[in-house]
Amino acid sequence: MNSHVSTRSRCAGVLLAAAFFISNQLFAADILYVAHLSLNTQDTYVVNRLRSQGHTVTVVADDKATVAHASGKAMVVLSMSVDLGKNLGTTFKNVTIPVVTWNDELQTQLGWTGPTKNAHYGRSDKITSIIIEDPTHPLAAGFAAGDLTILTDDDEHLGWGIPNSSAQVTVVAILPVNARKAIYEYKPGATLHDGSIAAARRIFFFLGDTAPDQMNENFVRLMDAVFDYAAYGNLSI
Protein backbone atom coordinates (compact mmCIF):
# COMPACT_ATOMS: atom_id res chain seq x y z
CA MET A 1 0.00 0.00 0.00
CA ASN A 2 1.19 3.51 -0.76
CA SER A 3 2.65 4.97 2.46
CA HIS A 4 1.01 8.34 1.82
CA VAL A 5 -2.41 6.73 1.43
CA SER A 6 -1.86 4.69 4.58
CA THR A 7 -0.87 7.79 6.53
CA ARG A 8 -3.89 9.72 5.26
CA SER A 9 -6.17 6.83 6.24
CA ARG A 10 -4.74 6.71 9.74
CA CYS A 11 -5.07 10.48 10.10
CA ALA A 12 -8.66 10.35 8.90
CA GLY A 13 -9.42 7.64 11.45
CA VAL A 14 -7.88 9.67 14.25
CA LEU A 15 -9.84 12.76 13.22
CA LEU A 16 -13.13 10.83 13.11
CA ALA A 17 -12.48 9.34 16.52
CA ALA A 18 -11.63 12.78 17.91
CA ALA A 19 -14.75 14.30 16.38
CA PHE A 20 -16.90 11.57 17.91
CA PHE A 21 -15.30 12.13 21.33
CA ILE A 22 -15.72 15.91 21.16
CA SER A 23 -19.35 15.58 20.00
CA ASN A 24 -20.15 13.25 22.88
CA GLN A 25 -18.51 15.56 25.40
CA LEU A 26 -20.09 18.69 23.96
CA PHE A 27 -23.60 17.24 24.05
CA ALA A 28 -23.23 15.14 27.19
CA ALA A 29 -26.10 15.45 29.65
CA ASP A 30 -26.32 14.68 33.35
CA ILE A 31 -29.30 12.33 33.70
CA LEU A 32 -31.19 11.06 36.74
CA TYR A 33 -32.40 7.51 36.08
CA VAL A 34 -34.89 6.10 38.60
CA ALA A 35 -35.51 2.35 38.61
CA HIS A 36 -36.62 -0.39 40.97
CA LEU A 37 -33.83 -1.43 43.34
CA SER A 38 -31.41 -3.46 41.15
CA LEU A 39 -31.45 -2.80 37.41
CA ASN A 40 -33.23 -5.33 35.22
CA THR A 41 -32.13 -6.25 31.70
CA GLN A 42 -34.00 -3.39 30.06
CA ASP A 43 -32.72 -0.82 32.57
CA THR A 44 -29.16 -2.04 32.13
CA TYR A 45 -29.45 -1.74 28.35
CA VAL A 46 -30.86 1.82 28.46
CA VAL A 47 -28.34 3.05 31.04
CA ASN A 48 -25.43 1.55 29.10
CA ARG A 49 -26.76 3.06 25.88
CA LEU A 50 -26.88 6.51 27.47
CA ARG A 51 -23.40 6.19 28.94
CA SER A 52 -21.97 4.97 25.63
CA GLN A 53 -23.10 8.27 24.12
CA GLY A 54 -21.17 10.27 26.69
CA HIS A 55 -23.97 11.02 29.14
CA THR A 56 -23.48 10.88 32.88
CA VAL A 57 -26.20 8.70 34.36
CA THR A 58 -26.98 8.70 38.06
CA VAL A 59 -29.09 5.67 38.97
CA VAL A 60 -31.28 5.97 42.07
CA ALA A 61 -33.53 3.23 43.45
CA ASP A 62 -37.23 4.07 43.53
CA ASP A 63 -37.43 3.65 47.31
CA LYS A 64 -34.68 6.27 47.79
CA ALA A 65 -35.53 8.80 45.08
CA THR A 66 -36.50 12.32 46.12
CA VAL A 67 -36.95 15.55 44.21
CA ALA A 68 -33.54 16.64 45.54
CA HIS A 69 -31.90 14.02 43.32
CA ALA A 70 -33.05 16.02 40.27
CA SER A 71 -31.05 19.08 41.30
CA GLY A 72 -28.44 19.95 38.68
CA LYS A 73 -29.64 17.28 36.26
CA ALA A 74 -30.65 17.76 32.63
CA MET A 75 -33.60 15.38 32.86
CA VAL A 76 -35.38 12.78 34.97
CA VAL A 77 -35.98 9.33 33.49
CA LEU A 78 -38.59 7.15 35.22
CA SER A 79 -38.17 3.52 34.25
CA MET A 80 -40.79 0.88 33.55
CA SER A 81 -39.48 -1.00 36.57
CA VAL A 82 -40.35 1.57 39.25
CA ASP A 83 -42.79 0.58 41.99
CA LEU A 84 -46.01 2.57 41.53
CA GLY A 85 -46.51 2.47 45.28
CA LYS A 86 -43.56 4.84 45.68
CA ASN A 87 -45.64 7.61 44.05
CA LEU A 88 -42.73 8.81 41.93
CA GLY A 89 -45.10 10.48 39.51
CA THR A 90 -46.14 12.77 42.33
CA THR A 91 -42.54 13.22 43.52
CA PHE A 92 -41.24 14.41 40.16
CA LYS A 93 -44.42 15.93 38.75
CA ASN A 94 -43.36 19.56 39.16
CA VAL A 95 -39.60 19.42 38.57
CA THR A 96 -38.41 22.21 36.28
CA ILE A 97 -36.40 19.90 34.04
CA PRO A 98 -37.71 17.48 31.39
CA VAL A 99 -39.25 14.18 32.51
CA VAL A 100 -39.21 11.09 30.30
CA THR A 101 -41.03 7.84 31.00
CA TRP A 102 -42.23 4.72 29.19
CA ASN A 103 -44.10 3.47 32.25
CA ASP A 104 -47.70 3.62 31.05
CA GLU A 105 -49.19 3.56 34.57
CA LEU A 106 -47.04 6.47 35.76
CA GLN A 107 -48.74 8.75 33.24
CA THR A 108 -51.71 9.11 35.58
CA GLN A 109 -49.56 9.96 38.62
CA LEU A 110 -47.73 12.53 36.52
CA GLY A 111 -51.05 14.07 35.45
CA TRP A 112 -50.46 13.35 31.77
CA THR A 113 -53.49 11.10 31.16
CA GLY A 114 -56.76 10.09 32.74
CA PRO A 115 -56.91 7.37 35.40
CA THR A 116 -58.55 4.45 33.60
CA LYS A 117 -56.34 1.59 32.43
CA ASN A 118 -56.97 0.45 28.84
CA ALA A 119 -58.96 3.62 28.21
CA HIS A 120 -56.54 6.43 29.08
CA TYR A 121 -53.30 4.43 29.14
CA GLY A 122 -52.07 0.88 28.74
CA ARG A 123 -49.86 -1.54 26.81
CA SER A 124 -50.59 -3.39 23.59
CA ASP A 125 -49.03 -6.54 22.16
CA LYS A 126 -49.17 -8.30 18.78
CA ILE A 127 -47.65 -5.18 17.22
CA THR A 128 -44.34 -4.80 15.39
CA SER A 129 -44.73 -1.29 14.00
CA ILE A 130 -45.84 2.23 14.83
CA ILE A 131 -47.17 5.02 12.62
CA ILE A 132 -45.18 8.26 12.43
CA GLU A 133 -47.68 11.13 12.39
CA ASP A 134 -45.38 14.16 12.66
CA PRO A 135 -42.17 13.50 10.72
CA THR A 136 -41.00 17.10 11.19
CA HIS A 137 -40.67 16.73 14.96
CA PRO A 138 -37.25 15.82 16.42
CA LEU A 139 -38.87 12.90 18.27
CA ALA A 140 -39.56 11.29 14.87
CA ALA A 141 -35.78 10.87 14.46
CA GLY A 142 -35.93 11.81 10.78
CA PHE A 143 -38.28 8.99 9.79
CA ALA A 144 -40.91 9.65 7.14
CA ALA A 145 -44.62 9.67 7.89
CA GLY A 146 -46.34 6.30 7.89
CA ASP A 147 -45.68 2.77 9.10
CA LEU A 148 -42.32 2.03 10.69
CA THR A 149 -41.27 -1.44 11.80
CA ILE A 150 -39.63 -1.30 15.23
CA LEU A 151 -39.72 -4.85 16.62
CA THR A 152 -38.48 -8.25 15.51
CA ASP A 153 -41.22 -10.07 17.44
CA ASP A 154 -44.87 -9.27 18.26
CA ASP A 155 -44.83 -10.69 21.80
CA GLU A 156 -43.61 -7.43 23.36
CA HIS A 157 -45.94 -4.95 25.09
CA LEU A 158 -45.73 -1.38 23.80
CA GLY A 159 -46.92 1.45 26.02
CA TRP A 160 -49.40 4.14 25.04
CA GLY A 161 -51.35 7.01 26.57
CA ILE A 162 -54.03 9.55 25.66
CA PRO A 163 -52.77 13.06 26.45
CA ASN A 164 -54.71 16.31 26.22
CA SER A 165 -55.61 17.58 22.79
CA SER A 166 -54.19 21.07 22.45
CA ALA A 167 -51.69 23.12 20.48
CA GLN A 168 -49.14 22.57 23.26
CA VAL A 169 -49.29 18.78 22.99
CA THR A 170 -47.56 17.10 20.06
CA VAL A 171 -48.35 13.50 19.13
CA VAL A 172 -45.44 12.23 17.07
CA ALA A 173 -46.40 8.57 16.64
CA ILE A 174 -49.34 6.27 17.25
CA LEU A 175 -49.87 2.53 17.51
CA PRO A 176 -51.78 0.91 14.63
CA VAL A 177 -54.53 -0.01 17.11
CA ASN A 178 -57.24 2.55 17.91
CA ALA A 179 -54.79 5.40 17.20
CA ARG A 180 -53.25 5.04 20.66
CA LYS A 181 -50.49 7.58 21.23
CA ALA A 182 -47.03 5.99 21.24
CA ILE A 183 -44.80 9.09 21.38
CA TYR A 184 -46.04 12.42 22.62
CA GLU A 185 -44.76 15.60 24.20
CA TYR A 186 -46.24 18.18 26.52
CA LYS A 187 -44.40 21.41 25.82
CA PRO A 188 -43.25 23.58 28.75
CA GLY A 189 -46.24 25.55 30.00
CA ALA A 190 -48.78 23.13 28.52
CA THR A 191 -51.90 22.25 30.47
CA LEU A 192 -51.69 18.62 31.54
CA HIS A 193 -54.65 16.24 31.61
CA ASP A 194 -55.22 16.92 35.32
CA GLY A 195 -55.31 20.69 34.77
CA SER A 196 -51.86 21.42 36.16
CA ILE A 197 -49.12 23.08 34.12
CA ALA A 198 -46.05 21.33 32.73
CA ALA A 199 -43.06 22.94 34.44
CA ALA A 200 -40.79 21.69 31.63
CA ARG A 201 -40.89 19.30 28.69
CA ARG A 202 -42.73 16.01 29.39
CA ILE A 203 -42.24 13.05 27.05
CA PHE A 204 -43.86 9.64 26.85
CA PHE A 205 -42.21 6.92 24.78
CA PHE A 206 -43.66 3.53 23.86
CA LEU A 207 -40.79 1.34 25.15
CA GLY A 208 -43.02 -0.46 27.67
CA ASP A 209 -41.48 -3.72 28.85
CA THR A 210 -39.77 -4.46 25.53
CA ALA A 211 -36.73 -6.72 25.76
CA PRO A 212 -33.59 -5.16 24.23
CA ASP A 213 -33.00 -8.12 21.92
CA GLN A 214 -36.37 -7.49 20.24
CA MET A 215 -35.58 -3.87 19.29
CA ASN A 216 -34.44 -3.21 15.74
CA GLU A 217 -32.32 -0.26 14.58
CA ASN A 218 -35.40 1.92 14.05
CA PHE A 219 -36.49 1.38 17.65
CA VAL A 220 -33.06 2.33 19.01
CA ARG A 221 -32.89 5.41 16.78
CA LEU A 222 -36.24 6.62 18.11
CA MET A 223 -35.12 5.98 21.68
CA ASP A 224 -31.93 7.98 21.13
CA ALA A 225 -34.03 10.82 19.71
CA VAL A 226 -36.18 10.89 22.86
CA PHE A 227 -33.20 11.41 25.14
CA ASP A 228 -31.49 13.88 22.79
CA TYR A 229 -34.64 15.97 22.49
CA ALA A 230 -35.33 15.87 26.22
CA ALA A 231 -31.80 17.13 26.89
CA TYR A 232 -31.33 19.60 24.03
CA GLY A 233 -34.78 20.54 22.77
CA ASN A 234 -34.75 21.71 19.17
CA LEU A 235 -30.97 21.76 18.93
CA SER A 236 -29.84 19.77 15.90
CA ILE A 237 -27.21 17.20 16.89
Summary tags:
single chain, nine-stranded mixed sheet, disordered N terminus, 237 residues, 11 strands, alpha/beta, two-stranded antiparallel sheet
Describe, in short, the structure shown.
The protein is an alpha/beta fold.
Characterize the structure shown.
- Helix 3 links the parallel strand 3 (75-78) and strand 4.
- The radius of gyration is 19 Å and the shape is globular.
- The protein has helices at residues 3-26, 41-52, 88-91, 106-110, 217-232; strands at 30-35, 56-61, 75-78, 99-101, 121-124, 129-132, 146-149, 158-161, 169-174, 181-186, 202-204.
- Mean pLDDT is 89; it is low at 3-26.
- The strands form two sheets. It has a nine-stranded mixed beta sheet with strand order 2-1-3-4-11-10-9-6-7, covered by helices on one side. Strands 5-8 form a two-stranded antiparallel sheet.
- The protein contains five helices and eleven strands; from the N terminus they run αβαββαβαβββββββα.
- The two termini are 36 Å apart.
- By secondary structure, the protein is of the alpha/beta class.
What's the arrangement of secondary structure elements?
Elements: H1 3-26, E1 30-35, H2 41-52, E2 56-61, E3 75-78, H3 88-91, E4 99-101, H4 106-110, E5 121-124, E6 129-132, E7 146-149, E8 158-161, E9 169-174, E10 181-186, E11 202-204, H5 217-232
Parallel strand pairs: 1-2, 1-3, 3-4, 4-11
Antiparallel strand pairs: 5-8, 6-7, 6-9, 9-10, 10-11
* Residue runs with pLDDT of under 50 for 5 or more positions: 3-26
Helix/strand/pairing class, anyone?
A: alpha/beta
So how many helices? 5
Largest beta-sheet characterization? 9 strands, mixed
Largest sheet, spatial ordering of strands? 2-1-3-4-11-10-9-6-7
Average the pLDDT over all residues and give the rounded result.
89
Separation, N- and C-terminal Cα atoms: 36 Å
Helix fraction by DSSP (H/I, runs of at least 4): 25-40%
Which descriptor suits the 3D outline? globular
- How many whole angstroms does the radius of gyration measure? 19 Å
Q: What is the succession of H and E elements? A: HEHEEHEHEEEEEEEH
Strand coverage percent: 15-25%
